[in-house]
Amino acid sequence: MNPANLIVEKTKQLITLMGFPAAEVALDEERRKVIILIDDRFVSDNVINILPALDHVVNLILKKEGLIPHVVDLNYYRKERERLITELAKAAAKKASVTKQEVALPAMNGYERRLVHMELTTHPELKTESAGAGKDRHVVIKFVS
Question: I want to staple 33 with a disulfide (CB 3.0 to 4.6 A). Which of 5, 28, 44, 101 is the partner?
Answer without folding.
Answer: 28
